[in-house]
Amino acid sequence: MSGRIYIFDTTLRDGEQSPGASMNTNEKLRLATQLERLGVDIIEAGFPAASQGDFDAVSRIAGRLERTRVAGLCRAGKNDIDKAWGAIQHARFPRIHTFIATSDIHLEYKLRMNREEVVQAAVDAVKYAKSFTDDVEFSAEDGSRSDRDFLCRIFGAAIEAGATTVNLPDTVGYAIPEEFADMVRYVMSNTPNMHKAVLSVHCHNDLGLATANTLAAINAGARQAEVTINGIGERAGNTSLEEVVMAVHTRPNSISATTNINTRQIYSASRLVSMITGIIVQPNKAIVGANAFAHEAGIHQDGVLKNPMTYEIMKPEDVGVNTNKLVLGKHSGRHALKDRLRELGYELSEDELQQVFMKFKELADKKKHVMDEDLEALVTEGILRTPDLIRLEYLHVAAGTSVMPMASVSLRIGEESVRGADWGNGPIDSTFNTIARLTGTESRLLRFTVSALTDGADAQGEVVVRLKEGDRIALGKGADPDIITASAKAYINGLNRLKYLRDNPVEKGRDTI
Ligand code: KIV
Ligand code: ZN
User: Fold this and answer.
1) Which of 16-25, 100-109, 247-256, 294-303 has the lowest average pLDDT?
2) Whole-angstrom Cα distance, residue 497 to residue 477?
3) Ligand 1 atom closest to residue 169's alpha carbon, by position in its atom list
């Protein structure tokens, strides 16, 4: 089989379901713009019925994108479909994506419905969605654990009702490649009118097989792959966009398919998702990990110097890893900064540029070479995060071998400026204690990690914290040449995200996905 594969990116919906990965509307808009640059065919922008925040973000994205289809997810019910349509109606190419579970276990214990009722609900949902737009996708949740003939029946009914895409999800990441491919072939051959719709697959990575299953499905005839950047998503995550795309690109004889992806935008998209969500990419992650193109063994290095193809099956430049980075320094002007930011995908207004330029100058005074990663951190912290309720105004820390660690902190909380000081086990502990007292947070710090944003002894420290408040979890991220300041920024970012989650409660039932 050969042909064009549609890349359906669900980083903003399933990806955002990664624990702690909530993004604000500015961040989502920026990511949606990068996904459009990357060339994905469909962006699932969110689940509008889940919360007001999701609804607003989806409608802003729908109004912004020019070339890409924008999908809104909804359960198979009128209220959800109304919300999805309300949010995507201004998109140039809107898609309603409705779903209901089809496996016996979901029918019996979760939905408490029989098969007839589920088929009827799917048909009603597709017909209702079709009254708003021609582009309707129907998903059979837990499809991979569903009875094959029932799947064919419900897909056939959905197509007859007007679905233009039917999606077979491996919701719990249970499938094995050969078996999943066989299921795809069965569905392709036995679903009435299958030729009138695109068959899509949506895999989760619980057994580490999401990419393998997706590729097997493509070879068996699936024409849409649902994926996320860096493979983020519910539990162990979703199929990773970069892995599927680069496998298709690198092995054309084994996977005869093409995509519309501009592979040179992959690395920027990966960095952006990591910066925005705070989910760090593991160093050995395929395609986008820090070690993906690093050769440690002498024999390998020798081979690569003689001919890169001895040990490299892809070129770093193919995925946008820039080996010859352009660096900026303290003599670089606004123009150079603007150009570089534009190349990195940031179109800033004059005011925003001025804000970043001032921060850039401060940074360039402390750090000789300002790299792309530093610029990205300046923009994500300075522009995308606003308006944050809590902001750091001032931090002074005393610590060392012969002093009791103490931090003095000034925060702006809304319109008010508050100050305080506290002790702790070390400089970071005392900073966190002070911030916790000033904000009155009841959250617990679950994890704290610090790493270097770039190479070199003057690199900025990048801190990620994981905070828990009740049953909410938020990640916070901060970068600064001083790691205590980076830690304070990360902690404050985590607190702001917890507030966002409090203000945008997820409606009951969202966790049925
Ligand atoms: O995993 C899943 O089944 C989903 C559906 C809503 C497509 O995310
Ligand atoms: Zn999913």
Assistant:
1) 294-303
2) 10
3) 3
| Residue closest to 425 by CA, chosen among 406, 440, 445 | 406
Strand partners, 207: none
For 232-242, write each residue's pLDDT tens digit: 999 999 999 99
Distance 231 CA to ligand 1 centre (A): 14
348 three-state secondary structure? coil
Which atom of ligand 1 is least distant from the CA of 141?
3
- Amino acid 453: pLDDT: 87
Neighbours of 382 (CB within 10 A): 16
Q: ω before 387 within 30° of 0 (cis)?
A: yes
Is pLDDT at 504 greater than 90 in this prediction? no
Distance of CA 397 to the CA centre of its chain: 35
Element at 101 (helix H, strand E): strand 94-101
pTM: 0.90
% of the chain beyond a pLDDT of 90: 80
- CA atoms of 138 and 225, how far apart (whole Å): 14
Q: Which ligand 1 atom sits nearest the alpha carbon of residue 99?
A: 6
- The length of the chain in residues reads 513
* Ligand 1 atom closest to Cα of residue 238: 1
- Quick: pLDDT tens for 439-462: 999 999 999 999 998 888 889 999
Instruction: Give the integer Cα–Cα distance in Å for 131 and 148.
Output: 29
Place of tokens 């001895």: 310
Of residues 386 and 146, the one with the higher pLDDT is: 146
Residue 325 is predicted with a pLDDT of 64
Exposed, middle or buried, 64 (CB in 10 Å: 0-12/13-18/19+)? middle
Ligand 1 pocket check: which of 17, 141, 203, 510 to mutate, most ligand atoms within 8 Å of Cβ?
A: 141
Pocket of ligand 1 (CB under 6 A): 14, 99, 139, 141, 167, 169, 171, 202, 204, 513
- The least confident of 28-42, 319-333, 340-354, 423-437 is 319-333
Residue 512: pLDDT band with limits 50, 70, 90:
very low
Q: Which ligand sits nearest to residue 144's alpha carbon?
A: 1
Q: Whose CA is nearest to atom 1 of ligand 1?
A: 171
Output the CA 317–ligand 1 centroid distance in Å. Answer: 33
Written as one string, the DSSP assignment of 385-411 is T-S-SEEEEEEEEE-SSSS--EEEEEE
DSSP state letter for 263: G
Q: State the CB neighbour count (10 A cutoff) for residue 509.
A: 12
Q: Is the pLDDT of residue 1 over 80?
A: no
Mean confidence (pLDDT) of the chain: 93
Q: What are the C-alpha distances in Å from 278 to residues 113, 158, 188?
A: 39, 38, 39
Q: Which protein residue's CA is at the shortest distance from atom 2 of ligand 1?
A: 171
Minimum-distance ligand to the CA of 239? 2
Structure tokens at 388: 């944050």
